[in-house]
Amino acid sequence: MTNSLSFIRALAEEYARKYNPNKVAPFPYQNILKEHKDLEIHHTDLDDPGLSGASLFKDDMVTIVINNTKPDRRQHFTLAHELGHYFLHKDILQDQKAILDGDAWLDGPNVLYRLDTAQRTQVETEANNFAASLLMPADLVKHGWQITKDVQELADIFQVSTVAMSVRLTKLGLVK
């Protein structure tokens, strides 16, 4: 099931308010774990250097695995992306049993098993939009931009990459 990107962004911003009421960075993922007992998060050294994270479904549990060999900011975004799959694509997870996310999927529009490319691209776009809105809520980014007018400084504040912040600023219409 696909959702509109505006719905996904609004949902992620709602979760940002709910699970990060103090507006801290990096995002306090442990707050989500307290409420969602069917979710586990593990940081581990993954053998495949191109694999950033994965969501796995087994025995009514979703396990998110994050490659801890990646830079911290990549891990934060990957975890938010995998949470996007958890909140948006549980039906796909239950059917496919796993969603693997490599750098190409997280960095742009470029491994859910058995899904055709069009569905894969849509699912990844949705998860990326969820992650961006969860980690960089629009109101906070707009406020930060008014004060700093500096992509790197905002990326540092939100603990995301400059690429992620640049994309978010562009999508919010703050830069071209």
Characterise this structure.
This protein is of the alpha+beta class and 176 residues long. The protein is 56% helix and 15% strand. The protein contains nine helices and four strands; from the N terminus they run ααβββααβααααα. The protein has a four-stranded mixed beta sheet. It starts with a helix and ends in a 5-residue tail after the last helix.
Structural class: alpha+beta
Reported for the largest beta sheet, the result is: 4 strands, mixed
Q: Tell me the overall shape.
A: globular
Sheet-strand content, in percent, reads: 5-15%
Distance between the termini: 32 Å
Work out the number of β strands.
Answer: 4
Helix content: 55-70%
| Average pLDDT score | 88
Gyration radius over CA: 15 Å
The DSSP helix count reads 9
* Low-confidence blocks of residues: 105-117
Q: Order of SSEs, N→C?
A: HHEEEHHEHHHHH
Q: What is the spatial order of strands in the main beta sheet?
A: 1-3-2-4
Summarize the structure.
This protein is an alpha+beta fold. The protein contains 9 helices and 4 strands, in the order H-H-E-E-E-H-H-E-H-H-H-H-H.
Could you list some keywords that capture this structure?
176 residues, alpha+beta, 56% helix
Task: Explain the layout of strands and helices.
Elements: H1 5-19, H2 30-35, E1 39-44, E2 51-58, E3 61-67, H3 72-88, H4 90-96, E4 98-102, H5 103-107, H6 117-135, H7 138-148, H8 151-158, H9 162-171
Parallel strand pairs: 1-3
Antiparallel strand pairs: 2-3, 2-4
